[in-house]
Specification:
It is built from 13 helices and 21 strands. Strand 16 and strand 17 form a beta hairpin. With 404 residues, the chain is α+β, with helices and mostly antiparallel strands. The strands form five sheets. Strands 1, 4, 5, 6, 8, 9, 10, 11 and 12 form a nine-stranded mixed β-sheet that branches. It has helices at residues 17-20, 30-37, 45-48, 63-78, 111-115, 127-140, 155-164, 189-200, 211-224, 260-270, 315-324, 348-357, 371-379, and strands at residues 4-5, 10-12, 82-84, 90-97, 100-110, 119-120, 142-143, 147-151, 171-174, 180-186, 205-209, 232-239, 245-246, 248-252, 271-274, 286-291, 294-300, 339-343, 362-366, 390-391, 402-403. The chain has two domains: 4-245 and 392-403, no CATH class; 248-367, Conserved hypothetical protein from pyrococcus furiosus pfu- 392566-001, domain 2 (2-Layer Sandwich).
Length: 404
């Protein structure tokens, strides 16, 4: 079963929400955050990336950074910018990005079920990133970054969500990036009970984005024994058929000592190559490759796409095992400094620009991983390669926070 719990959320004053709510802490650098928050004392980046209010160059894991985050968080609460709901409830959170829209349920998911793998994972976490999120949560005594979860869509839930969101939202704004954010309370007790009952029928929830946040919440739950609000973690839970996954592309810093001709000859043993090719691959097992001012269209040869598991057949897996490791010498992309990852929202033009400028030697653009693949691999207990998926639109920090 999947347990969801209503909670008294801390939410922004609707009039100020557009100034307060910000993209997640991990999709931008400190320098980018300073620019975004400049001149806006209400920006939640002062809580989620508090180093921007301290001297440039300071270690982002310094105690002073977490203390600044706590100070800024309390300032927003004391000033009434962030307000706590008077009673526990669920909320619905809609995002509209171009012609795509998705509506998720805001709730607390169970830390115990996370530990029991009822809330299923598909990525490994890094201890240093877990430690950072634990320290941030403990400094604020709150979870401010929601975990992005998904589930197999349920018609009864869809129908109720449609009824509630037919009314006027409590918060409704369009952010600077053009994404519209709206939310509605699930005010009726009968509706909350119905949602809990329907979710309890589900065998699992799946982490789409937020593995480090959920892992940190699980550690704090174990440390505190579930006391206070530590038994649950802040989540927005979307039906699978509304999710939008973009590719996660690769930039390589060098050619591993090989010539451009040698690289192309080696790639030809793995791929059917067309030149010139489109920068965006149009289907599974097709990739784009950019080097020396030229895009090439790559397609894995049939011999590489037979008799393999679902995880081995992911394009990110095939690229790693058949190209990045044997040809470029990148055996562990989690730790290698010779590879960089670029979310699909930035487009393939950024890949070409990085290569043309000399910041990278070549680039691979990929077709997006399918959500069905993600769920089947998670069900089997598999771990996908790092940076396999990029979900858009991103959840806005400060729309909802959970006080422990």
């Amino acid at each position: 079963m999947a347990t969801i719990t209503p909670f008294a959320a801390l939410r922004p004053d609707p009039v100020l929400a557009a100034r307060v709510c910000e993209l997640p802490y991990d999709v931008m650098s400190s320098d980018e955050a300073r620019v975004i928050a400049s001149g806006n004392e209400l920006s939640f980046l002062r809580v989620s990336k508090p180093e921007i209010d301290l001297p440039a160059g300071m270690d982002v894991h310094d105690d002073a950074v977490y203390a600044m985050g706590r100070e800024n968080f309390q300032r927003l609460i004391a000033g009434g910018v962030l307000r706590r709901d008077s009673s526990p409830m669920f909320h619905l959170y809609r995002q509209i990005m171009g012609d795509h829209h998705q509506i998720g349920l805001v709730a607390l998911a169970s830390c115990q079920e996370y530990l029991e793998n009822i809330v299923k994972k598909h990525e490994l976490t890094r201890p240093d990133k877990e430690d950072d999120r634990v320290r941030h949560i403990e400094a604020l005594n709150a979870q401010t970054g929601p975990v992005f979860l998904t589930y197999q869509a349920v018609p009864a839930i869809d129908a109720l969500v449609g009824q509630i969101t037919a009314g006027d939202p409590e918060i409704d704004f369009t952010a600077a990036d053009g994404v519209r954010h709206s939310c509605w309370p699930v005010a009726e007790a009968a509706d909350r009970i119905m949602l809990q009952r329907e979710f309890a029928k589900l065998p699992a929830l799946y982490i789409a984005d937020g593995h480090h946040r959920s892992a940190a919440a699980g550690r704090i739950y174990q440390k505190r024994g579930g006391l206070g609000g530590s038994a649950g973690f802040l989540a927005v839970i979307f039906p699978h058929d509304q999710m939008r996954i973009l590719p996660y592309n690769r930039l390589l810093k060098d050619l591993n000592g090989l010539s451009e001709t040698a690289i192309l000859d080696a790639l030809a043993r793995v791929f059917e190559i067309t030149m010139p090719g489109p920068s965006d691959p149009g289907e599974k097992h097709a990739l784009g490759f950019y080097m020396a001012g030229q895009w090439y269209a790559l397609r894995f040869r049939a011999a590489f796409t037979c008799n393999r598991s679902a995880m081995e057949l992911l394009d990110v897996s095939l690229l790693q095992t058949e190209v990045l490791a044997p040809l470029f010498g990148i055996d562990d992309p989690r730790t290698s400094t010779r590879i960089a990852f670029v979310g699909g929202i930035r487009g393939t033009a950024e890949l070409a620009q990085s290569v043309d400028s000399g910041d990278a030697a070549c680039a691979f653009s990929l077709f997006a991983t399918g959500l069905e693949d993600l769920m089947s691999i998670a069900d089997a207990g598999g771990i996908m390669p790092p940076k396999s998926t990029w979900f858009e639109p991103k959840l806005r920090d400060a729309m909802f926070s959970h006080l422990l």
